[in-house]
Known about the structure:
The chain has one domain (8-241): Ribonuclease Z/Hydroxyacylglutathione hydrolase-like (Metallo-beta-lactamase, Chain A). 20% of the residues lie in helices and 28% in strands. It has seven helices and 14 strands. The protein has helices at residues 45-51, 69-72, 75-84, 99-110, 176-182, 205-210, 227-231, and strands spanning 8-13, 27-32, 35-39, 61-63, 91-95, 123-127, 133-136, 139-146, 154-161, 164-168, 187-191, 220-223, 239-240, 246-248. The strands form two sheets. The chain has a seven-stranded mixed beta sheet. Strand 3 (35-39), helix 1 and strand 4 (61-63) form a beta-alpha-beta unit. 48% of the residues are buried.
Amino acid sequence: MQGRRGLSVQFVGAGDAFGSGGRFQACISLRTPTSHSLLDCGASSLIAMKRLGIDPGSVETVLLSHLHGDHFGGIPFLILDGQFSRRERALDVVGPPGTRERVLRAMEVLIPGSSTVARRFEVRFVELAARQKVRIGELGVTALEVPHPSGAPAFALRVALGGATVGYSGDGAWSDALVEVADGADLMICEAYSFDRPIKFHLSHAELMANRDRLRCARLVLTHPGPDMLAHAAEAEAELAADGMVIEL
């Protein structure tokens, strides 16, 4: 059932890079009655989608926050799955500068020849600039740079879709970009990698809660927990996402 604004958000993967707690890597499904997109597509995402009964061929757009494998590493397998399932619908891959090169290189490392093989469908790359507002199909997307080295800019994303606004932190240390992305959002999805232990270029639950009043969003949901955060899950002061969790907006 769709929410009153027509947007269904499902956490296909709500885990960190290392599968802490048995969770799948970052992947969030955004579905309206007429479109289906992903926020990030970590290396385990194809497995997670199939476990949840999500047809990978229904995905039209993948929005990438940054170019670490636990956030983009599933794309080669998503493309290969489309090839073998005789997909015909184009796939848009939208991310930071360098996305096209990084994805094609990953494809060649993982499945040599896969980046150049003839397919029934087109893979189209769109590379975002910081603070650029773009429209891709039904999606309105704005990217703001956050502190998280990944060989390319790392972004927090603000997405307008289905009459709702979703903010997504990606990974990164606290910055005012998160305040902008969350401002007035119906849902803010934010990394909380550790509970109170500082980890460089990541966000702790303690730091996030210290700035909670600045995040003027209707609903805050935490994701990407590491072992420390999972050990303190019962103490979390905001919702902690789980694999498969659905939010209707």
